[in-house]
Specification:
The chain is α/β, with parallel strands linked by helices and 202 residues long. It is built from nine helices and seven strands, in the order ααββααβαβαββαβαα. α1 runs antiparallel to α2.
């Protein structure tokens, strides 16, 4: 409805002329002054209407189009895929051992900066894994740092925040995302000295 509404130069000139005439007539008497006030108010209303229309066309409609597909909310579509078959086959999760065997993957650590300062996960000796910390509250602002072409494994200690980010990324068009299961214990088990040595020699 509002796709082609914007404030062009012609509209701007008309509005400015209307307001200017209203201000000039405001020095007259009686009906002239009332007419000027009406003209001035009409000009202001038109300006407001055009600004609101422009905002709807450029901000509100694109936002709604990203949230809805064919009249259906994206999150609703995602929830409908979370069936018994989906969870029963473990399609939403991956173990650290399996992640380490995948070429060109991305470990997304969604813990807070304070947690990361206490225990840092770098994966420096796992050349096939790129690791990055983006706290859950910064995900929406830094989503461009998450690659869509790689498997994205999301990590947090209790899998609560990782589950939230998992659903969020699916709603944003990420198709190859999984939750790194097991928290700290599974991760530390997967990087015991023997396993790290085997990985380095392979």
């Amino acid at each position: 409805m509002f796709n082609h509404i914007f404030i062009n130069q012609a509209d701007s000139q008309k509005i400015n002329l209307c307001i200017w005439q209203g201000l000039q007539q405001s020095h007259g008497s009686g009906l002239e002054k009332s007419g000027a006030i009406f003209s001035f108010c009409a000009g202001r209303i038109k300006v407001i209407f055009l600004i609101v229309s422009w905002a709807v066309a450029n901000f509100f409609q694109p936002f709604m189009q990203t949230l809805y597909i064919g009249g259906e909310n994206k999150m609703e579509r995602i929830l409908k895929t979370f069936t018994l078959d989906f969870f029963g086959k473990g399609k939403h999760k991956i173990s650290p051992d399996k992640l380490f065997d995948i070429e060109n993957s991305f470990l997304l650590d969604v813990r807070s900066k304070e947690e990361v300062a206490s225990i840092t996960i770098k994966m420096e000796f796992h050349s096939n894994i790129e690791s990055k910390n983006i706290p859950i509250n910064e995900i929406s602002d830094r989503i461009g740092e998450i690659p869509k072409e790689k498997l994205v494994a999301i990590f947090c200690p209790a899998n609560v925040r990782s589950a939230i980010v998992y659903a969020y990324l699916l709603s944003k068009g990420f198709s190859n995302v999984q939750i790194l299961e097991g928290g700290y214990s599974a991760l530390t088990e997967a990087i015991k000295p023997g396993k790290v040595l085997k990985m380095l020699k392979s």
